[in-house]
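Sequence dictates fold. Below is an illustrative record:

_____
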Amino acid sequence: LPKHEFFVDMTCEGCSNAVTRVLHRLGGVQFDIDLPNKKVCINSEHSVDTLLETLKKTGKNASYLGEKSAQ
């Protein structure tokens, strides 16, 4: 699956929980949240636009950082 990295302006656990909630609702995603660096890495078949729209549903500022190459 493509792995995408996003910036999400998360400041606390509540913010990262909101991200977790919207991504679970979307479904079909595997993700990990890096709260200190305000990054969310998502493995998904969904388009970047769909993922970004979903992340913005948290009310947080979100932007696409690019595709992460598989290590």
User: Anything to note?
Assistant: The chain is about 30% helix and 35% strand. The mean pLDDT is 95. The radius of gyration is 11 Å.
